[in-house]
Write a structure and sequence with these properties.
The radius of gyration is 33 Å and the shape is rod-shaped. The chain is an alpha+beta fold and 343 residues long. Strand 3 and strand 4 form a beta hairpin. The protein is 27% helix and 25% strand. Helix 1 packs across helix 8. The protein has a 5-stranded mixed sheet. A 5-stranded mixed sheet has the order 12-11-17-14-15, covered by helices on one side. The chain has a 3-stranded antiparallel sheet with strand order 2-1-5, with helices on one face. It is built from 8 helices and 17 strands.
Length: 343
Amino acid sequence: MSKVPLRARRSDFLCLLIPALFVGGAVAQTAPAVRSETIADRVAASPIVNLPVDRGAYILGTGDQVTVRVFGADDMPERPTEVGPDGKINLPMVGKVQAAGIPVRTLEANLTTRYSTYFKDPQVSVNVTDYRSEPVTVVGSVSNPSVIQLHGPTRVMQVISMAGGLRPEAGDRIMITRPLSPDKSSAPAADPNDPNAKFYVKEVDLQKIIDGSDPSANVMVQANDVITVPRARMVYVVGDVIRPGGYVLDGHNSSLSVLQAIALAGGINKTAAKSKTRILHATAGGDRVESMLDLGKIMGSKSPDVPLHADDILFVPNSAAKNAGIRALEIGLNVGTGIAVFR
């Protein structure tokens, strides 16, 4: 049998290898990227349900301006009246009446009683013409954390929009911290910095608003509310993967499987040591507990998939021997190409 020259064998090998490498590279580059959809994406894509606003439930505050109309009393001027620093408005015939800290509907009922002394079955309406007493603080994972001055009855999703919307790392819960008056009623405290004031926290489930299962979750905000948007809980994929990073969990109690996490990370590299993959579990004390798994067996359906929970780290190590082999192949390819071109 005749011997094939070394140069010819090398050239034939390169002719077969180079197209294969190009085809493999093209497949890798054209594969669709898997992206984790965040709660911010769903909020942006979904028409948020806005329930009708009950303006009669608006709680008046110092600085608001109201116009009081008594039907049938044509000689009474209908001009805006400001709620003074003492929380009262000054009206013809009835004098000063408490307005701050009570809903518009309650003020109408109180004025109806007052004007009953002068008119038979008076019909009283109160219209807020200028809102000046509704600062709301928005903090956390929003684009523009700030203090927002509301202009009338407003729902929580409108406030989030006014703060620039949710950031990608935002969680699917919103916390509303609301000051209560010292008598523990539902009315806000006159001074939110009062150490005697009481507070309560309400949790808003964004998912219920988005999917329409509970539109009433889009609650009304009140003066001096603090709206906090916490960061989402995440799992982390690091090591020899295409896109290492943190990936958002959908919901406080949800989990992400190892295969799902690997898919979100774009898959593993050729040099990954699949059999030496590890999960670092977070503990209540702040330490981490390590567990081993064989990613190759999971990917080959020979072992069950494993759930990852909030703050878990999935680590896919690099195989030094495999990396050295691929590097040697690259060097050989470069040398062979040089001989073929420059002979």
